[in-house]
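Lab meeting, action items carried over

1. Structure of the two-component assembly. Owner: GW. Status: complete.
Input record:
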Amino acid sequence: MTAALRLSNKDQAMLDGDFGAAAQIAMRILITMANVYEAQEMLDIESAHIDGCLYHGDSGIDFAVKLVDGGAQVVVPTTLNVGAIDLLHPEDFQGSAVQAAKAQRLMALYQQMGCQPVWTCAPYQAYQRPTLGAQIAWAESNAIVFANSVLGARTNRYGDFIDICAAITGRVPAFGLHLKENRCGQILFTLEGIPERLLHDDVLYPVLGYFIGEHSGNQIPVIDGLPSTTSEDQLKALGASSATSGAVAMFHAVGITPEAPTLAQAFCGREPATRIKVTLDSLKAKLDKLSTVPDGEIDVVALGSPHYSLAEFAVLMARLTEITLNPETQFVVCTNRLVLAGLKERGWLAKLESAGVQLVVDTCVVVAPITRVREGVLMTNSGKFAHYAPGNIGLQVVFGSLEECLRSAEIGRVWRDKRLWDVI
Amino acid sequence: MSGEISDYGMSYKMTIERKLGWTARVMVDGIGQGKALVLPEPLSLWGGLDPQTGQIIDQRHPSLGQNVTEKVLLLPVGRGSSSASSILLESVRVGTAPAAIITAEPDGILTLGAIVARTLYDKAPPVVVLAAGDYGEVIKLVQDHPGTRLRVAGGLVEVI
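Predicted assembly:
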């Protein structure tokens, strides 16, 4: 038997209902989770990011109503993840009016609790950037892995419900990745014989992440061999994919991420329990798995999971001056309102729209009915879109690089860069 | 009751009839029973399970098309999106949830979905974790004897 959970006086008061019914429900749920994980105390958090505002069914509304009726208000800065509708472009919603109303109702309920309506899965690139060592309670699998790995903030893989419980109480159980000793690497992935050209191409990162996630389960992978020039957006894509094919909450990239200046430090001085070589062949096998149909005609190109950053838009803008998008192929980029404002400021929004790019904010194509077709083929450079589109929106998927997506959107069928995955 | 006799009785039963009960760590308490459904790979319920029907819809998952409703679901661990809690909760609301969930490692996201279901609707599948060796024994038994029914009650997993 481990020692029982120690509660502060305030925790106990919340549990007793002194802070209202919502705080009482929230504390009760947190304590149940603390007992599951054998936590011995609770910790203060600095911020929260909430995933529960995405409509999956009436039960999500039932829970939010119960909290709002119980007087719920968040006590730390709290951002909201995507909802199930683009509030700025509601006319693009292809689902029923009832579905749209429910999506909006749930989003409104979370706003009533004092959460910031930023509606993005990449809050770390826009609204809040926790610092090294900060204790936070974040939901959304890609945001979790980014916060832990790239920023060195500390969160567990929180999901819907516990995220808002943490925000309402300002507390989380002290377990898992909140504690330094649980943040050491467990599996070593060594890149071997990956061509230099590919190491610098964005297309590598979602595929590498997909490979790593599948071999890591919920353990902490350490990646050795990435170039020091690896960009934040590449790490974002890697993390998002690894949290899609596996339950990865944190990775270390040796010499790149803040808690892994050296291989030895990434493993806290211990020997890796497992070593896996990442070869070009193993990546190509994963690449094949990301597509569900052979190359052929496509109906939609979708970019922006996680939400597209300004840096990613800069690359897209440059290519769009040389490429003419085919109007038969829907071309969607998902992003957040702060990036949208940046696009307006730079005069890019008008250019994107005249090029035929449809911008989606507040949500994305795999959580809201946005694609014009209900069956057909979606092409993407996102590992997460590629993974979830078939199950969530019933479209088949072709995965490719940004360049392959753009050239394919030009001709309405898959175009391949034949040399992209070559040995040299 | 004499310790000696009951010890003898237990080992006799284990040897002759093979082992029929395992102790598990309780994540969410309760009782649930039904036909066992083994998922050979982890599954993210979000994008992997349709809560309206209880069907597995992840096209890359080997259990695609199977239905989890009223089954005792055995999976190594969840994976992927943190929205999985919502899908489990919604399946409880709709009535398509498994009867019980057995994993080989603690899974916070599944546990949470079940705890919230208990809070809101006063019902939820129990969630328990078996030690790796025991988990392996149970799934082998189920694979060798299709149609095996299991009962999860508190910290005990039994063949019924």
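2. GW to write a short summary for the group page. Key points so far: The mean pLDDT of chain A is 95. The longest strand of chain A covers residues 330-335.
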